[in-house]
Specification:
Layout lengths: L3 H13 L4 E8 L9 H16 L2 H12 L3 E8 L2 H4 L5 H18 L3 E8 L6 H16 L3 E9 L3 E3 H17 L11 E5 L20 E6 L3 H14 L5 H30 L2 E6 L13 H6 L10 H19 L17 H8 L5 H7 L7 E7 L4 H18 L3 E8 L7 E3 L6 E3 L10 H5 L3 E2 L9
Parallel strand pairs: 1-2, 2-3, 3-4, 4-6, 7-8, 9-10
Antiparallel strand pairs: 1-7, 4-5, 5-13, 6-10, 11-12
Amino acid sequence: MFSDREVLSTLEMIKSENLDLRTVTLGVSLFDCCAEEAEHFQDKIFRKIVRLASQLVGICDEVGEKYGVPVVNKRIAVSPIAAVGAPFAAPQMVEIARVLDRAAKEVGVDFVGGFSALVEKGFATGDRALIEAIPEALAVTERLCSSVNVASTRAGINMDAVWLMGKTIKRTAEMTAARDGLGCAKLVVFANIPQDIPFMAGAYLGIGEPDSVINVGVSGPGVINQAILRARRENPDISLGDLSEIIKRTACRVTRVGELIGREVAQRLKARFGIVDLSLAPTPHVGDSVGEIFQSLGLARIGVPGSTAVLAMVNDAVKKGGAFASCNVGGLSGAFIPVSEDLNIAAAAADGYLCLEKLEAMTSVCSVGLDMVALPGETSAETLAGIIADEMAIGMINKKTTAARLIPVPGKKAGDKAVFGGLLGEAVIMPVRSQGSCADFIRRGGLIPAPIQSMTN
């Protein structure tokens, strides 16, 4: 139960602190659309998506207006195309991508996710075809997002897939070079990917999920930051333990609001309500930054000594608050640190406070991983694969989700600026400080075996 003061505080979040629901994502299963003929399959998936999602945007707007909490993004996540489109070759996969993009435009959503493959233990025919199609698919579409899971605690790391994704990222950047490698901003490589992520670019609908389901992402870094600042004004000597309690309580209230809206949207759409993802996902707008939380907690900038500890504290408090508020917590649920999508983090990287190595260390305790990191265009496919492998190892060993969304910007070097636009933001390109080669290691391929932590039965 909440006190009168906490109720008023929630109303203040809505009125003055830009509380919003970051995304409502409709999951749509495409397994009943499987067909031997590519044109028949494309027609079936288009018709099903439009049928189930045609009212999504309007209903989200109506419910958001009813409660005074805007739903910023409306999205769709579909079954992994590598599985439902398994019979098809790469050129046909590109056409499927076009159909998904056309369906997203038809119903008015921001993004559609699920151009995905799960290859942590090996490749099926559909997996190889989809991965081969990714560069062209992301180059010829506007709203399509793609994800590939290459590692898990149970299976280990598929190094053949890691090497392939290094080359795929490089090709995707080249095919979208005129837009600073924008295609790579819609492509993410995962370890331990959840089946119910509402956030892009990783959203897809898992094989064990319902036919249609609503998952929501609540976000709210600006609200968390204001709560910390308010507490420090009231008590300048407040301890970290007490600040953690404030973050937890604030996350609890934000989660309740998100679930309330998500359940009503699901009811109106006659879809199942799935999960609330608690993740603190920033935007490139003032007052909506995860990086500002680090400064409010006493650090000069994100990236200085103490940053990993602060991120661990914030991540834990957010999870505790959300878990108290809802029985349906899922997805990623923690704190994102996407460099280009957060003005404060992007500035810290540009000013030299945050380097790639420190960012990687912080991913051991954050919600995702190396997210929206712009790198020099000359970065080799082997080096990209090495960075991915390191990130996958963190996820595999720690039994957590990690990911890499790396953008080698063609024709640009460290210190230059890359501009992606909209929620994807802009960032100064970070240097890859180590000049040594990892090519011999990466090219060996094979499977890095699952760790002893996988033996939990």
